[in-house]
Write a structure and sequence with these properties.
By secondary structure, this protein is α/β, with parallel strands linked by helices. It is built from 23 helices and 17 strands. The chain has three domains: 17-290, Spore Coat Polysaccharide Biosynthesis Protein SpsA, Chain A; 341-401, no CATH class; 418-514 and 562-631, no CATH class. Helices cover 44% and strands 16% of the residues. The strands form three sheets. Strands 3-2-1-4-7-6-8-5 form an eight-stranded mixed sheet, sandwiched between helices. Strands 15-12-13-14-17-16 form a six-stranded mixed sheet. Strands 9-11-10 form a three-stranded antiparallel sheet. α6 (198-208) packs parallel to α7. The longest helix has 31 residues, at 570-600. The protein is globular, with a radius of gyration of 27 Å. Residues 7-14, 322-341 and 633-653 have low confidence and may be disordered.
Length: 653
């Protein structure tokens, strides 16, 4: 019954309470069921009932929609909204607010679980509070949690708890966590589109509208936490960008510990002293303070043009609720997860959707190589199987297309691919031949490697140099190609782009690190120009790829060579050290100029991010973000870490 919460200035009374809930999800097939069931299974106080539980599945490429609909079949109060395109959490939350009715709305993250009694304690805290208000639950780290940094992350969330106990003790403050949150209806509006941190937005908006912000520490919600520092930094930099966004939109900043230290120094110092007194408190604090500084710097970089898109964020690496084994325990040793027909169907749908982005299809032979274990074993079997599944693919000769794609002839692309390969060979045997002593391997990536270059595509090159030679090689390569294109007309072919260049030490770590389908497909499709034996060694160093693409992996990892690091000559290493800051600065400035030109032409897909470290150079494009969104969710491993600050492209175009 409506009216359980008193209006501002009116007497307070408990009344009956109708609750709505909202869970928004993108590729959460392994967590969504436990999240929704943790709400459905709550024992609610007398007079409190669930009216509806809304699940919004946005742009999912895995089984999230299927899981959501099965939950709706089992529980009539569960309602499902499917968004074909993923446009961010704020847009999905607007769908929940638009449909939700009742006295209050409970928002739960799709990878979290409300612990027994949590919702009842939120409601109990809300009784007697005048709207508008929001009440947050206490996020807790599940035990056991994998990863060597788990104790530090547990200490951090204990600090988070103590901070909110002090901050929200009087119903004010300006910070809320959004893992499990109860907000009054209809007095709290939805967040605007594009907002990254919905909890921070609610908190600042309520503080500006005489609303109440409360904390129910006995209402516990189990959350996913990072298993490594890289994921933690990615998560924290997104939060810092989101807080800056809220400050810009609402004109006031969310509360944080550093800001609280300035405004309430005595109270904050007492809080930190309590936390430092705990076991290993100084050690945990030192780590977190260092990571926060790095995350702030990365967030500041993200706000420079071209701004990194944190609206469609990626989850940290996590595991299904029933899985607590360490990361990569099975896939890392080359064992295969049993695959089902649904796995093959999802893989085919993703690959054809990606090909459709380039206006083409996938040859059946290549498609068969890319299937997970358990898919059709031969090209003929695959063709017959696809003919029986017209909703999955359209066949045109020996190629498969997405059902809605326009079937186009491949003759021009095949001829162009042959020409690009000839040009790459002449480039490597000509202007770039100097690099044979400094380069461990070189190859072609992207659309040319797939045999599908379109008009205007670049010739994307992947290079691994000896240790200490990367920036010296790049400087000479840029100069050699410039001179060749000016003096020798035959080299005026496609534009060569050294888009992914690493030292051998960094390459070994990159390939060994557990990653995703997009990286695996690109890595296994590289056309090697130099150092084939070394490149097979790189492939063999990443047995996780076998869990993703077993057939192609087995064919590309035969007779691997050694990948131990080889240092460049001392003179080269010295020159490399001098050239690095100069050339890296030039590449960043050149990228800013090109991105400004792309914005003037309204070419958003043409913008990119230049990423440089002493041991690597990558260019991270908007098109890559689009492709990664299409690939995401189709991995057999399901545990996808981010590689590097800003997400390295791998050997991707």
């Amino acid at each position: 019954m409506s009216g359980a919460w008193p209006e501002r200035g009116s007497p307070t009374f408990p009344g009956s309470v109708d609750l709505a809930a909202g869970v928004v999800a993108h590729n959460e097939e392994h967590h969504l069921r436990s999240a929704v069931q943790s709400l459905v299974g709550q024992e609610l106080p007398e007079g409190v009932r669930w009216k509806e539980i809304w699940v919004v599945a946005s742009g999912c490429t895995d089984r999230t929609v299927e899981v959501a609909r099965s939950l709706a079949d089992e529980e009539p109060r569960v309602r499902v909204v499917v968004e074909a395109e993923r446009t961010g959490k704020a847009r999905a939350l607007r769908e929940v607010f638009r449909r939700a009715s009742g006295d209050a709305l409970v928002l739960l993250n799709s990878d979290a679980r409300a612990e027994p009694g949590a919702v009842g304690r939120l409601v109990g805290t809300a009784v007697g509070k005048r709207p508008p208000f929001a009440i947050m639950a206490r996020p807790v780290v599940p035990s056991p949690t994998p990863g060597r940094w788990a104790p530090t992350f547990e200490w951090m969330w204990d600090l988070h708890h103590e901070f909110h106990v002090d901050l929200l003790a009087r119903g004010n403050g300006a910070h809320l966590s959004d893992e499990l949150l109860l907000v009054s209806l209809p007095s709290v509006p939805p967040v605007p589109d594009g907002i990254i941190n919905d909890g921070s937005y609610f908190a600042v908006w309520l503080s500006q509208h005489a609303g109440g912000l409360w904390y129910a520490p006995d209402a516990r919600v189990s959350i996913q936490v990072p298993s490594n520092v890289r994921d933690h930094l990615r998560q924290r930099r997104r939060i810092h960008v989101g807080n800056a966004q809220v400050s810009s939109v609402l004109g006031a900043a969310p509360a944080t510990i550093p800001r609280r230290l300035v405004e309430e120094p005595a109270e904050t110092v007492r809080l930190l002293r309590r936390m430092l007194a705990r076991e290993d408190g100084f050690e945990h604090f030192a780590r977190l303070a260092t990571w926060e500084l790095v995350a702030h710097l990365l967030a500041a970089w993200d706000r420079l043009p071209p701004r990194k898109d944190h609206v469609r964020w990626e989850r940290i690496r996590s595991f299904p609720p029933e899985t607590t084994s360490a990361p990569g325990a099975s896939a890392a040793n080359g064992s295969e997860r049993p695959s089902t027909a649904t796995d093959a169907e999802r893989r085919i749908a993703v690959l054809l959707r990606v090909a459709g982005q380039f206006g083409t299809g996938v040859p059946l032979g290549h498609l068969q190589e890319l299937l997970p274990a358990g898919g059709p074993e031969t090209v003929g079997t695959l063709g017959r199987w696809l003919e029986e599944h017209p909703s999955l693919a359209r066949l045109a000769g020996a190629r498969a297309f997405a059902p809605t794609a326009t079937v186009t002839p491949n003759g021009d692309r095949a001829r162009r691919a042959h020409q690009f390969r000839q040009f790459a060979d002449s480039l490597w045997n000509g202007p770039l031949s100097f690099g044979r002593e400094l380069v461990r391997c070189a190859g072609i990536t992207g659309s040319v490697a797939f045999g599908e270059p379109g008009p205007g595509d670049d010739l994307d090159l992947f290079v691994v140099t000896r240790s200490g030679a990367l920036w010296w090689f790049l400087a000479r390569a840029y100069l050699a190609m410039f001179v060749a294109r000016r003096r020798d007309p035959p080299y005026r072919g496609p534009t060569p782009c050294l888009n992914y260049v690493l030292e051998d030490r960094a390459a070994a770590l990159e390939f060994a690190r557990r990653s995703d389908l997009m990286f695996a497909r690109e890595a296994l499709s590289v056309q090697v120009l130099h150092g084939d034996e070394y490149y097979r060694g790189l492939i063999a160093s990443g047995p996780w790829m076998r869990a993703e693409i077993p057939r192609l992996y087995d064919s590309r990892s035969q007779a691997p060579g050694t990948i131990s690091s080889e240092p460049a000559p001392r003179s080269v290493r010295l020159l490399n050290l001098v050239i690095y800051p100069i050339l890296a600065t030039y590449l960043h400035l050149a990228g800013l100029v090109r991105n400004a030109g792309a914005r003037r032409l309204s070419d958003q897909q043409g913008s990119f991010r230049t990423e440089t470290t002493f041991r690597r150079l990558t260019f991270h494009s908007r098109r890559f973000e689009t492709l990664r969104g299409l690939y995401h969710g189709s991995s057999s491993a399901r545990a996808v870490p981010e590689r590097g600050a800003g997400s390295s492209r791998g050997p991707a175009t």
